[in-house]
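seq:
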Amino acid sequence: MSSVLVVDDERYICWLVEEALVPLGYTVRTATNREEALALIRQEPPGLILLDLKLPQVSGTALLEEIRRLAPEVPVVLMTGEMEAEENLPVAGRLAKPFDLQDLRRLVETLLPFLPEGP
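struct:
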């Protein structure tokens, strides 16, 4: 599955990730809060989740625990401006904000090689 779920309350970040990955063939869905993120994961688990650690009304670490219960096999990458924070979390990677789009693309391609959807 070549879909990425971006969970970030900053719509600009969601848009930026979408603009960077859609031309490469990835499907990108976005959520700006906990409820949207969990609903999308329940609907269809993505191949990769990019998760902001600083969300309103819920911490990224609390949401990560919920994601792990719903979709334990899905790799999660933390997006944060505080790379030292929460070093012991079960994640596949970290992306420092502000991030370089090339770094984003390389990380996604490493964790989620593009697989075209079959018939």
